[in-house]
Amino acid sequence: MTKVHPNVAAAAEAAAPAKAGVDEKAKGEAVSLTVWRRSLLFNGKGFTVFDGKGNLVFRVETYAGGSPREVVLMDADGRALLTIRRKKLSFADEWLIYDGDAASPTAPAPKRFTARRHVSLRQTKSLAHLSPARASSAGGGEATAPSGACRYDVEGSYAARCLDVFASSSSSATAAGAGEQRRRVAAVCKKEAAVGPDVFRLVVEPGFEPALAMAVVILLDQMHAS
């Protein structure tokens, strides 16, 4: 049976190998991560993510009494990588993704994406959409998305741990062409061993950020639970 957690005796050395595992995307290889829907904290909730060697890569820890509206994705050393925050007073189910710790009192965290649950009366594979965060132009003009930014569409079934993340260009020139080009950048699938729905694989294609792929998993978990 596949190991779910790393060797405890090597926990102090987990951070360096974990970074090396994530950097496999630089070699042009897909990164396969094991996601465990469980926190390392006693009685805590969250996620623990390992690379192919069983080294800790990412973790999410929700403390007792913590707000379910805000989740922080951390690296193996506990540094905040991304913050996923549910928007308040919104007519739709929307979330915001920030770089780093959005609650940091020292510096405001840059907003990267706005995520929305897909809602339709018709049966569809679409689950969610992520759009680049818009920034106000100089002089207070109309807010625009960063040049060359991509938007992402999530399709499949999170409950069945079977879904794909597709990237598409936000450029109007691409959209005006002969059909918008999409490419799969990440996928969630069941583990080969029968370990239950709380342990599954996250496969990240070359060129896509593993931390952002894990943020999508967190988003889907939030949407599924809400």
From TrEMBL:
Source organism per UniProt = Oryza punctata
Task: Tell me any Pfam family this protein matches.
Answer: LOR
Domain of life, per UniProt, equals: Eukaryota
Q: Which residues form a coiled coil?
A: none
Annotated family: Belongs to the LOR family.
> Which InterPro entries does the record cross-reference, listed alphabetically?
LOR (IPR007612), LOR_sf (IPR038595), Tubby-like_C (IPR025659)
Spell out the protein name for this chain.
Protein LURP-one-related 8
